[in-house]
Amino acid sequence: MKQDGVILIVDDDEDILVAGKLLLKRHFSSVQICNQPENIPRLLSEQKFDAILLDMNFGPGESSGAQGYLWLEKILEIDPQSVVIMITAHGGVDVAVDAMKLGATDFIAKPWQNEKVVATLSAAVQLGRTRTEAKDLRNTNKVLAEVSGASSGQALLGNSPAMKTVFSLIERTAPTDANVLILGENGTGKELIAREIHAQSLRSNKVFMSVDLGSLSETLFESELFGHKKGAFTGAKEDRVGRLQAANGGSLFLDEIGNLPLHLQAKLLTVLEQRMVTPIGANLAVPIDVRVITATNVSKQDLSLESKFRQDLLFRLNTVEIELPPLRKRHQDIAVIANHYINLYARKYHKPVKLLSAKALTAIENYPWPGNVRALRHAIERAIILSQGLELEPIDFQLDPQPNQAGDVVAPVSVNVANSNTIENEDLNLDRLEKGAIKQALQKHRYNISHAAKDLGLTRAALYRRMEKHGF
Ligand SMILES: Nc1ncnc2c1ncn2[C@@H]1O[C@H](COP(=O)(O)OP(=O)(O)OP(=O)(O)O)[C@@H](O)[C@H]1O
Predict the structure, then answer these.
(1) How far apart are alpha carbons 180 and 320 in whole angstroms?
(2) Dmax of the chain from CA atoms?
(3) Which residues carry this modification: 4-aspartylphosphate (predicted)?
């Protein structure tokens, strides 16, 4: 069977070209020949060759190899990944060795032995493919690092004294490698802050790896974080690199760290102390270099309970602590964030940019936003889509009257599906029932997404998707 490989033979001796083509055609999928090296740049620009067989001497009586060196250099200049095999005259080993110092992969001496030529080219083609794959991988990694490492393109906004303190903390902390713990309710912008820290850090051109511990099932935690070897447990069909290892060189953002079970807290602590990670089922530990940024919506008070969170791990994680107050406690941020998203969604939905009416601004500034900035953002998106007037009015925001200033829930909820198997409400529309159940769960758990998701039997990610769908 022919090997998948595209080969180019460059030689001014027609006999060599014909013999080489006849031989190699039987073993490789494509063989091209060229009797004038001047055509090499054009050929390389037209096609990718897995291996190039290049003569050392062109022109009658030439034996110095100078032409071969020249064209070898030219080829590597055009594509440094090229795999070039030199064709040397009998006894021209010195010349071949010099060519290899310049970057040739191997050489074949004339007159050649067919088996040797095929074997050399077969290895060369494989090397060529591996080099191309490695280059593609490097490029993919670079793009991934750029995409994930960038500040997500989202502006971190705020005028409040609390946000000014946060900006200053980010600026001072980012360039150090200090671990940072971000505390705040769901939707306050913890992930945005983590990305900003990474973007302003010396690791900004490396990967930013985010792991939402709130949406992982307990069985997945360990393998997701630490990785596993093939066969380490039922279902481990192949080796898997853990997130800690994948974040090597960059920053690892562990969201909802409060959800990490106690026994894995111990394992994480060991990894951070030793800067080594051992995938499940592996014998060898792998060194890692990551900056760890964590976030949680668990209160500081709860986090300092040894029964819930290992205090030695907490001290490792909270070298710097950033506390993000809920939006209702920093209403000076509301106008600037609202205007930013009005512009963004007007562009997205091809709508005219509208101003907030004075009444609308007062309404959103006085609303307690139990879902914080995430909910404000969704409310703006909905308002942009629905608004028909010249300005955005309070009615466009469909603000629920239920929470009072302190964020306490006081309003009754219209749909009750939580405690009974029979649905008393007349409305059996599944979509509305789902919306009602989500609303009820969010209110019950004061917009704690992890708890609401658990109550609804959903992962956090699934709840977010549904919240988005229903415009929460
Ligand atoms: N200061 C801010 N300026 C602009 N947008 C913000 C700000 N804070 C949060 N947002 C937006 O609000 C949404 C939620 O932010 P983010 O995911 O960072 O919150 P979080 O606290 O990590 O939430 P969770 O605890 O649920 O994971 C995002 O769309 C984010 O862009």
Answers:
(1) 5
(2) 100
(3) 55
188 CA distance to ligand 1 middle (Å): 5
**Who contacts 326 (Cβ-Cβ below 8 Å, separation ≥6)?**
184, 185, 188, 369, 372, 407
Parallel/antiparallel/unpaired status of strands 3-10 and 276-277: unpaired
Q: Residues 396-435: pLDDT tens digits?
A: 988 876 544 444 433 333 333 344 344 455 677 778 888 8
Q: How far is the CA of 97 from the centre of ligand 1 (A)?
A: 60
The CA 376 to ligand 1 mean position distance, Å, reads: 10
CA 450 to chain centre: 23
Q: Residue 310: its pLDDT value, please?
A: 94
* Mutational pocket test of ligand 1: of 374, 446, 460, the residue with most ligand atoms within 8 Å of the beta carbon: 374
pLDDT given for residue 425 in this prediction: 56
**C-alpha to C-alpha distance for 318 and 312, rounded to whole angstroms:** 10
| Tokens coding 223 | 């393998």
d(CA 472, CA 470) in angstroms, rounded, equals 6
And the tokens for 276?
């080594």
Residue nearest to atom 15 of ligand 1 (CA): 189
Pocket lining for ligand 1, CB < 6 angstroms: 154-158, 184, 186-192, 255, 295, 297, 337, 373-374, 377, 449
The amino acid at residue 383 is: A
Q: Which of left, alpha, beta for 385 (phi over 0: left; psi -120 to 50: alpha)?
A: alpha
Encoded tokens for 199? 């973007």
Which residues pair with residue 355 across a beta bridge?
Answer: 391
The stretches in the chain having pLDDT less than 70 are: 90-91, 136, 138-153, 218, 401-426
Give distance in angstroms: CA of 192 to centre of ligand 1: 6
Task: Enter the ipTM.
Answer: 0.98
Whether the full predicted model's pTM is greater than 0.80, yes or no, is no
Which residue in the block uniquely carries the two structure tokens 């629905």?
Answer: 386
Rounded to the nearest 10 degrees, the angle between the axes of helix 430-444 and helix 460-470 is 120
* Pairwise CA distance, residues 190 & 156, whole Å: 10
Task: Residue 33: name the closest of 52, 51, 10, 16 by CA.
Answer: 10
Give pLDDT, residue 38. 94
Residue of the CA atom closest to atom 7 of ligand 1: 189
Closest residue by CA, ligand 1 atom 27 = 186
Beta strands 106-109; 84-88: pairing state: parallel
- Encoded tokens for 444: 């019950």
CA of 377 to the centre of ligand 1 (A): 9
* Cα 198 to Cα 150: distance, rounded to the nearest angstrom: 8
Which residues have a Cβ under 8 Å from the Cβ of 61 and sit 6 or more positions away? none
- Give the pLDDT confidence of 137-162 residue by residue, as tens digits: 766 665 565 555 444 567 899 999 99
Atom of ligand 1 nearest to the CA of 188: 21
Tokens of 154: 């989202």
